[in-house]
Amino acid sequence: MQNTLFNLLIIRYGEIGLKSSKVRRMLEKILSKRIIQMLERKNIEYDKLKLFPTRGRLFLYTPNISRAIEELKKCFGIVSLSPAFQITTDRKKICETAFKIAESDLRMTDTFAIRTRRVGEHPFSSQDISSEVGTFFLNNFSDKNISVNLSNPNHIFYIEIRDKDTFLFKNIVQGAGGLPYGSQGKLISLISGGIDSPIATWLMMKRGCHTIPLYCDLIPYTTNADYDRLIYVLQKLFQYSPDKDITLYRAPHGYILKQIREVIPNKLTCIFCKRLMYQFAEKLAMKLNAKGIVTGNNLGQVASQTLDNLYILNQAVKIPIFQPIIGFDKNETIELSKTIGTYSESIRQVPDCAAVPEYPETHGLLEKVLEIEKEHDFTTIINEAFQKIEKIRISIS
Question: How many CB atoms lie within 10 A of CB 109?
Fold first, then answer.
């Protein structure tokens, strides 16, 4: 029995099952909706999605199991998936079906193990079923000289008995985990096409946040190459959301930077640039009812990300600033970028920002920064730039 003959997909969730009954039901409902949205985005047909009364499982009946797996392994909230075969709970039928699943896999002198899990009341134990199926294999595969190895087998076959239904499978595909996308509210993501900010965004998406990308365009101090790179990155990144398309907000931050550079010390350029990015993001958050800002800050990585300077930046706004990769090693961020598929685009070379000073301040003083801001009307500049914000629809499907 090949995978193409499996008749459903077992979808497992993790920490959702640890919530209270009310919260669990709410998250299960959102996860079910996200699953359907992701299937429909790729035009993947399905017959039904069933939530089993026992916690931790959903069952998707679809003729397109392979395509469904490729899409749903990117659905936040799903811990793992398995193509499975469903039968009624009958001991003889379990042995015969397990044999059919195994016959295309077991080769000469292979070793195997049977893993059985049982939920509900039955006149037998999980160990009884594992033993019976194992004995059935040994008797019916005697010509292959196979043997049982419970610690390190060549093949593992799984049996999951849930009351009157039994599910048999052999593969477990890892999912993205986390919480269903959008279940925890909205955030504004200060994002570029580089490695760090997309990963920070992805991590908050994984925790159930609907993230709204905000790109602070630094033209004339950069080129359109940075923006073009970002579009490719976003199309990869938001494959993990259920959206067919997303809205990117493009802010004319070069317009802001050009004006403030005339009145601030050159070495404080990066600090003021980022503080005004935060304030712009806060203004957008207020408009869109978002509850915070996501950044790709990583402690000590560049001049603006020293502890002193991050302290100054975090005082720029009143809403929370989320920095999920703040303690990552660079290699950890790179590996995650490769895993989710943004790395090859993020490393595309683009010109550096021409406004970065030769010797940027690494240990700024908040008092000095606030004094300069008090002397100059930066709020008016932000408000003017906000009126010029551009909304761009990006297709994800």
Answer: 10
pLDDT band per the 50, 70, 90 thresholds, residue 53? low
Condensed to tens digits (0 to 9), the pLDDT of residues 94-148 reads 999 999 999 989 999 999 999 999 988 999 999 999 999 999 999 999 999 999 9
> Positive or negative, the Cα torsion across 299, 220, 355, 255?
negative
HSE-up of 292 (CA within 13 Å, CB side)? Answer: 15
In order of their start, the domains of the chain are 3-174 (3.30.2130.30), 186-395 (3.40.50.620)
What are the CA-CA distances from residue 388 to residues 74, 220, 250, 253, 272 (Å)? 35, 16, 9, 10, 20
Instruction: Answer for the pair 187, 322: CB distance below 8 angstroms, yes or no.
Output: yes
pLDDT in tens, 229-260: 999 999 999 999 999 999 999 999 999 999 99
DSSP element (H, E) containing 212? strand 210-216
Identify which of 28, 44, 35, 40 has the alpha carbon closest to the alpha carbon of residue 74. Answer: 35
Q: One-letter amino acid identity for 213?
A: P
